[in-house]
User: Fold these one by one.
Assistant:
Number 1:
Amino acid sequence: MAQNNKRTTGVLGLDPALEGGFPKGKTIMVMGSPLSGVDLMARQFWHAGDEEGSYLMLDGEIEDGMTDARDLPPDQFPLHYKGQRIVVDSLSTIILKFGVEAALRVLSAAHRESEKAGSNIMFILYTGIHRPEEEIQILRLGDVILELRSVTFVTEIERQLAVHRLKGSTVPKRLIPFNITEKGIELSTTSRVV
């Protein structure tokens, strides 16, 4: 259960690693490859707890309850931010379709909105498709930055979660192993110090 100033992540094992969950009123960036589980984490966050939320889908299949944002101009996104758990999937599509400046405006507006409402707005950023200078500009604006990584060995895939920024809290100094199950992402109990 999340503390009063924290909101549950919806991911088994992640709340304790983040000292109770995501700090309320902060923007969250989840980055990784399309196969790393970033979309699973976003859905788990969106469905967690008893708070309402909204999910703006720009580049994937529209599921029940999601807002079809494929043709929505970025300056119209705040009109669709409903509830305390908001997901924008994906920030990468905004960059590719409208440019990095539009994405920076979306992030700045989201930051103001989440602070004012005490909500959390989560953005998905796909790695390896943007110019490094664009990624730097984007990452500088995130309050919470999580990265999902996959390392392939000869016979297995090792998945790791890295917490790069956690505004208002201590950042864990370790990579946290996780698994992808039929229920979504679940953190392992063992981890590796970095």
Number 2:
Amino acid sequence: MHKYSVRCALCGEIQDQMSLRCSKEHDALLRTSYENPQIILRNLPGIWKFYDWLPVKGIIKEGTGKTITYKSEAFAKEFCLSHLYIAFNGYWPEKNASMMTCTFKDLEAFPTVQRLHEKQDKNIMVVASAGNTARAFAHVCCITGQPLLLLVPQDSAHRIWTLHEDTSCVCLITVKGDYYNAIELASNVASREGFVSEGGAKNVARRDGMGTVMLDAALTIKALPMHYFQAVGSGTGGISAWEASMRLVQDGRFGKVLPRLHLAQNIPCAPLVRMWVAADVSPDVMEVNCPKDMYDDVLFNRKPPYSVIGGVRDALKATEGRMYGIDNTSAAHAQHLFEETEGIDINPAAAIAVAALIKSLEIGAIDPNDTIVLNITGGGIKRLQRDYNTYSIVPDMNVSANDPEAELKIVKKATEKFKR
């Protein structure tokens, strides 16, 4: 029997393990089903401890980290929270946290690249990102030598750094435009010969990798939490937490009730909040002046996987979840309070989740005695920069999203760099 199978979330039919979509062209995500019904930690580094519930047949030994879940004391005391657990993703040596890109996007990058190697795909991997995903994929590709074409908005270029001096496997293209413009260009380039898409939300490796946040939390608590808080851009992390929770329920040792998802975005640039509150509003409607002036623009995605079967809407409905719109002032206050009490710096996106937790208490959406998991999706950058040298990846080219020749220019630049 295979270690895992991949099925359509709508029709349930088994698909090719490497497929990104249902062979019947259903508008539905694919999901993995694993041979081992119960999760057992392996004696492997980082994320690979959860090997039995990752859609891979091997591992990348170097450079991987994992979520570190711990029970909060100082921050929890501020709000009289009895059972608040922090799922920390980043660099914090005192907690044995060693995600060296300081973002939980590491959790999706490693299994995605591993699967590409198992597929024996020699093409150039194409990734669009507003910063954190790009940093994570650059990290693992510098380790493995996988050729990587990164497309990021030019305003996000400052986020593309690494601990590796040699970044010759990365071709960085900055785009005059927003994240969705980068996504569109990346999709067009990836469809060309010699290139391959990493798959986005459709890739089970990405979602199951991020789902290990919930696995680590449940194994630490020895039960599923009642509530799960996370800031989201596309919402894929929320989908991942839901899918992991369903597997843990089927495991039988962690409880029978799915955690309620509490997902947060930065208003006014919050498409998922708008769609959840006003379901009849088209996801194509563009927020005014977004992503300008956001507390963290990595959280803005114009077309998230909301209505697809198995997507964000289904995750929220299945868990009786909530969406929160968090303004910049609330986020700044939450970030300061968390860093002051817990003693580690966190990324602005994570501050949105902290602010959502505070807001949920204010409106009575949770009880202080409930078991809560707060996903700090990134942290420890300031701490890491004290301990290590970081190297900015220099862009190979800048293109305009409005340039009709942009796609051809990108293909030519990447082909020349990697001599394809």
